Amino acid sequence: MEHVALWVGAFLTLGIISFLYKDNPWYKLSEAIFVGISAGYWFVVLFWDNIYGKFWVGVFPSDDSGNAPDYWLIVGAVFGILMLLRLISKIGWISRWPLAFIVGCTSGLYLINYFSSNMMRQVQGTIIPLLGTSFDLPVYDIIGNLVIVVGTFTGLIYFFFSKEHKGAFGGAAKIGIWVIMVTFGASFGYTVMSRMSLLIGRIDFLFGEWLGLIK
Amino acid sequence: MSIRTKEILIAGIILIISVIVYLGKVYDWFGSAQFSPTLSVIVIVIIFLALLYILIRTIQGKLIDRRTVFVFVGFAVVLPFFMSITQNIRISPEVQQVYNAMSTLQPGSKVLISFDYDPPSAPELQPMAESFITYCLSHDISVIIIGLWPQGPQQANLALEIALENEAVKAKNPQYGINYVNLGFQTGNEFVIQRMGTDFRSMFQTDYSGRHYDDIPLVKNIKNFSNIDYSFNLSAGYPGTQEWVQVAVDRYGLWMGAGNTAVQAPMMYTYLNAGQLEGLLGGMNGAAEFEKVCGITGKGTKYMLSQSFAHVVVIAFILIGNVAFFIGGRKKKLDV
């Protein structure tokens, strides 16, 4: 069985890689198998974890679990069914109710989370003593602090469109766009590393696990 | 001979070679392939000369087919696996920060690891998971595993298998339920984290194998994050480090480090600089650095040579592409 699994894995890996040469039936077959298995897998996972694991077990807990039935889950289940009414065009408008509930809840929750973690804490992290609290920071750290402060400030100026980008303001905006470009460059470098890692993983599988050439 | 016939012929040859090599592996006909240091250097020089040749051809105005780029990247990834040269790995401050945080933990401390990734991200995150668990178990630090991604706990079991084979871990003889536990996957994304902030048991009533929470000695006295000494999140997207920071760190004060895929890592530096994260391992490089600082030789270190070679080739082709672009632009201007 192990041999079959290895050959199937190698067949599908090479099938996907074969797209680099050109689009071909082997690639299409591998892609279709991947999409089909993914869809099936997620259906099973969501059914057993959400519909059965959360709803059914929550509303009808077994005696030995010691848990009381949680009837609030029925409200969620009803909302879930209302969402499916979208498939019936005449009463599809009902699906807007659960959608409104989801949008309202998540935006309320996210507003607090993002405002606290992604705004206030970041502002706090940017307002830093440039030279250290006792003026004892090494030059390297002082330069780092300056980059953070100047980068944040000029980056914000670039996105301020209520004033024309001219003169000193325009110069700061230009520095801001350079900072943003450097950020994109660093991000691209990391993305290359990530994609290469995936390739390295598959190459290790092909030449290591499958063919046994790498120890 | 038509192109289709040639393609089928080449595919057939590759298949026959693969079958022979595979049988060689099964019946142990050949050992593992390894280049000598001299041969490794020769291979590197040949690749360099080939890139130089492409650059010269580009300057002459002869552009290459995109498949040539793929072939070079392929060589750059495959050949280093067979080379007997090592790469110097420098420990970055953010990786050192994770190690320093771990070093402060006393034996018996409890670490929560959330496996929020699936097999596609395993090449980057699995080496981190293996070395992190190995470090914990070999230093008498207890490990509690959960997953907000369905396949996370399975990845955790694979990492545990590797960690338990480590000699230093074997010497400690860690026991399931006492020194480590896998509480499995829980659906609900950040809402799971939020509920864990008040009550772990409400989210993980049983472990991965169905054992009841109160029957597991390691976790039966753990109520919420205040009973956790350090947390480490392995993340490949949503839900992941961002959600853990927003809910567990900022709301409940959990002390946390993270290991992220390289795509995600740049976005986490803001949390690191603001002190919301205690250390960050970014991509395969982060995994290799963490292995080095922990004194473990794992897949991160093994993969890094291929990673570096691939980067050099990509940078070379970016330069070649720019040369082609600027020469093309100049020619257009001259034509006008």
By CATH, the topology of the largest domain in chain B is: Rossmann fold
The count of strands of chain A amounts to 0
CATH class of the largest domain in chain B: Alpha Beta
Residue share in β-strands of chain A: under 5%
Q: Using only CA atoms, what is the Rg of chain B?
A: 24 Å
Distance between the termini of chain A: 22 Å
Uncertain residue segments of chain B:
none
Shape of chain B: globular
Largest interface: A-B, 46 and 53 residues
Q: Overall pLDDT of chain A, averaged?
A: 91
> What is the share of helical residues of chain A?
over 70%
Descriptive notes:
The complex is a heterodimer of chains A (215) and B (336). Chain A has 215 residues and is mostly helical. Chain A is 74% helix and 0% strand. The model of chain A has no long low-confidence stretch (mean pLDDT 91). Chain B has 336 residues and is of the alpha/beta class. In chain B, 56% of the residues lie in helices and 10% in strands. In chain B, helix 11 (265-273) links the parallel strand 5 and strand 6 (280-282). In chain B, helix 2 (37-59) runs parallel beside helix 13 (299-335), helix 4 crosses helix 12 (283-294) and helix 5 packs across helix 6. The two termini of chain B are 44 Å apart. The model of chain B has no long low-confidence stretch (mean pLDDT 92). The chains are: A mainly alpha (215), B alpha/beta (336). At the A-B interface, helix 2, helix 4 and helix 6 of A face helix 1, helix 3, helix 5, helix 10 and helix 11 of B.
How do the helices and strands line up, and which of them pair or pack?
The complex is a heterodimer of chains A (215) and B (336).
Chain A: H1 2-17, H2 25-59, H3 72-84, H4 96-126, H5 139-158, H6 167-210
Helix pairs in contact in A: 1-2, 1-6, 2-3, 3-4, 5-6
Chain B: H1 3-26, H2 37-59, H3 66-78, H4 93-103, E1 110-116, H5 122-138, E2 142-147, H6 152-165, H7 167-172, E3 180-185, H8 190-196, H9 200-203, E4 230-235, H10 241-252, E5 256-260, H11 265-273, E6 280-282, H12 283-294, H13 299-335
Parallel strand pairs in B: 1-2, 1-4, 2-3, 4-5, 5-6
Helix pairs in contact in B: 2-13, 3-13, 4-12, 5-6, 5-12, 8-10, 12-13
